[in-house]
Write a structure and sequence with these properties.
The complex is a heterodimer of chains A (74) and B (238).
Chain A lengths: L6 E4 L1 H7 L5 H8 L3 H8 L7 H11 L3 H4 E4 L3
Antiparallel strand pairs in A: 1-2
Chain B lengths: L1 H28 L7 H14 L1 H8 L4 H27 L13 H24 L4 H29 L12 H21 L2 H7 L4 H29 L3
Classes of the chains: A mainly alpha (74), B mainly alpha (238).
């Protein structure tokens, strides 16, 4: 079976603005990571751990599958 | 006598100015959400320090050395106070999203990388073909220089890093992931590089060359580690 690289997309930036235009710093404090990590997540450069993903779920009140989606290659 | 008096007078003026600048900075922030009870203590401390110029003026009456030293110390402390106040003016607790995305850890890694390359490239260039008697003091000097650059560089980065709160932040999952990958890259460099040592031993190279090669491999793996850290922070997708 050929190994193909899938990509995780996220709606963190969009959800942050929907939640009272929350700043990256405020979100970072709630999740328990550095502001730069939130920047990296929003840019799709870093895929957070399951623990952080569940924290995102709690902060945004949206299921993990509604925040992160797996984009399969064609 | 005139020069010494000038030093003390200049120190007095500078110190008074620095104290005023610090008090104005704190006064301006008193009604913002970034004002803390600690600032009151700091204000009291600064006001106490403000008495120092008066003391220094009295010191004029005493010997030239006392006057010169007093002025010098005042100038140094005044510059520190100016720097601290300037930093306090720029400090925000809630950084905006457009603020620098470069973390303190990233800046620190750039500093370490640059220091390693500059200091040890110089060391290897100077000890190439040298004797052990020349190499040992060069080695000690390079290590001391590296430590000094690290200390001073980290102080400067910490003072000018904005926002200041991020300086103390613990390592998070992204930092750990970057660290792990960078250490892995350094490990591969070291393991492959160390194969050069038995080859040099078999070929009966001089002790200094063998020692320097061993040390160069260590430095190279550190360069790979910090280079990887910088690259992962800037361009890496983890």
């Amino acid at each position: 079976m050929a190994k193909t690289k899938s990509r995780v997309r996220n709606r963190v930036r969009e959800l942050r603005f929907q939640h009272g235009e929350m700043t990256q710093q405020q979100l970072a404090k709630m999740i328990g990571v550095a502001r730069q990590t939130i920047i990296a997540v929003e840019q799709g450069k870093f895929c957070p751990s399951l623990e952080s993903a569940l924290r995102f779920e709690r902060v945004f009140d949206v299921p993990v599958s509604g925040i992160f989606t797996l984009e399969e290659p064609d | 006598m005139e020069f010494i008096s000038f030093t003390a007078a200049f120190g007095t003026v500078l110190w008074t100015g620095a104290c005023l600048f610090a008090v104005i900075t704190i006064w301006k922030r008193r009604k913002t959400d970034q004002f803390f009870p600690e600032h009151i203590l700091l204000t009291v401390g600064i006001l106490l320090l403000a008495i120092a110029p008066c003391v220094a003026l009295i010191v004029f009456a005493f010997g030239e050395t006392t006057s010169f030293l007093g002025g010098g110390i005042q100038i140094v402390f005044a510059l520190i106070l100016f720097g601290g106040s300037y930093r306090a003016r720029r400090h925000r607790l809630n950084p905006t999203d457009s603020e620098s995305s470069m973390s303190f850890r990233e800046k620190s890694s750039i500093l370490v990388l640059a220091a390693l390359v500059v200091v040890f490239l110089g060391y290897f260039a100077r000890t190439l073909g040298a004797t052990l008697a020349v190499a040992i003091p060069e080695f000690i000097g390079s290590v001391v220089l590296l430590i000094l650059i690290m200390i001073v560089g980290h102080i400067v980065i910490a003072v000018y890093h904005s926002p200041l709160d991020e300086v103390d932040e613990a390592m998070d999952e992204r930092d750990s992931a970057i660290e792990l990958r960078s250490v892995r890259n350094a490990y591969y460099t070291m393991v492959i590089g160390f194969w050069a040592i038995p080859v040099l031993l078999i070929l009966s190279f001089p002790a200094l060359i063998i020692a320097n090669t061993w040390f160069a491999i260590l430095v190279l793996s550190e360069v790979v580690k910090y280079g990887s850290v910088v690259a992962y922070y800037r361009f890496g997708e983890l």
